[in-house]
Design brief:
The protein is of the alpha+beta class. It folds into 2 domains: about 1-65, Ribosomal protein L9, N-terminal domain (Ribosomal Protein L9, domain 1, 3-Layer(aba) Sandwich), CATH 3.40.5.10; about 75-145, Ribosomal protein L9, C-terminal domain (Ribosomal Protein L9, domain 2). It is built from 3 helices and 6 strands. The chain has helices at about 25-30, 40-75, 95-105; strands at about 1-5, 20, 35-40, 75-80, 125-135, 135-145.
């Protein structure tokens, strides 16, 4: 059976490509899961329209990420922590703390996009990278003070 792939499928092909597969594989796996259409003119038009809509959506997401990155770039965060002897801080500054501080400033960022390699356990100024999109990465300055 000849099909048109709606999405990228490992070891089979990329979105929009026409491939020949066994009937059972197409009818029982690919088509019910929405990974492919049977190869007809109408389905080819649907795949082209889906690809066009996906491109428009990707541009919109990229623009939003770029705008958010510009806002984050201008932001500086201050974290006040309790310290003990020798300026050793109690606890740590994690990505969740940074996400909460950004939310207080009106910038919503998922904590999983904030790349704190190890929790911050010292006073000072840190530049923390934030990956908002596959092509958009920015940094925020975090001041850890007493």
């Amino acid at each position: 059976m000849e099909i048109i792939l709606r999405k990228n499928v490992d070891r089979l092909g990329d979105s929009g490509s026409r491939v020949r597969v066994k009937d059972g594989y197409a009818r029982n796996y690919l088509i019910p899961r929405g990974l492919a259409y049977e190869a007809t003119r109408a389905s080819l038009a649907m795949v082209n329209e889906e690809r066009k809509q996906a491109g428009i959506h990707e541009q919109r997401v990229y623009k939003q990420a770029a705008d958010l990155a510009a806002a984050i770039e201008k932001t500086s965060l201050t974290v006040k922590v309790l310290v003990g002897q020798d300026d050793k801080i109690f606890g740590a500054v994690t990505s969740q703390v940074i996400a909460d501080l950004l939310a207080e400033k009106g910038i919503q960022v998922d904590r999983r996009k904030i790349n704190v390699e190890e929790p911050i356990k010292a006073l000072g100024v840190f530049e923390i990278p934030i990956k908002l999109h596959a092509d958009v990465e920015t940094k925020v300055k975090v001041w850890v003070v007493k």
